Amino acid sequence: MMDNTRAGSYQEKLALLEKAVALDPEFAEAWALLTVECIYTWKILFYRNDSTLQARARYAYQKALELGPDLAHTAYARHALLKYDEDDYEAAIAYLL
Asked: Which residue of 4, 24, 53, 95 pairs with 42 in a disulfide if CB–CB is 3.0 to 4.6 A?
């Protein structure tokens, strides 16, 4: 059962995505979504400097890029990293154009 609180639902999403990549380490879309959820939880939901989530987002993106470089999910993960991790809004927009 999903927790309806914002923090609870994102913690559950992270846990489910972690489980997905543990069960299938070749699941590129799950790695890409894990990137985005780590960033969302770290930068938007809690807006704090969380080096663990930051490192996990970067690692998950590298796995997504390695396994599915042409996937839309991977492109969106890169966009999220540019925007929120590197604080490069112009590059983030240009990346999607």
From this structure: 53
